[in-house]
YneQ (Robertmurraya mangrovi), 96 residues
Amino acid sequence: MAFGISKEELREWKRKIDEGEIAFLTHYWLDDRFPGSNTVTKVGCHDLHELEKWGGQYGLKKEWIHIRKDGYSHYDLIGPRQKEILAQEGLNHHIW
């Protein structure tokens, strides 16, 4: 279950993706499969090659990209790896 983001934050994430940027969206999220994790960061890009290249620098596999028909394909970052990548990207305001 996702919660804790505004419609404007979601629109801004989609706008950046549409413009070919690597876009980050962090929100609260609960899933019994991931006990102890209460946020997820979706890292998306319209250009799947660019997204794969971005993920590769962090050891993320292209198979982990959530491919979406609507064009908002993304990686889901969860747990300690999420915080590590966000810190390396200088996105400390996404770390809750």
Q: What stands out?
A: The CA atoms of residues 23 and 37 lie 21 Å apart.
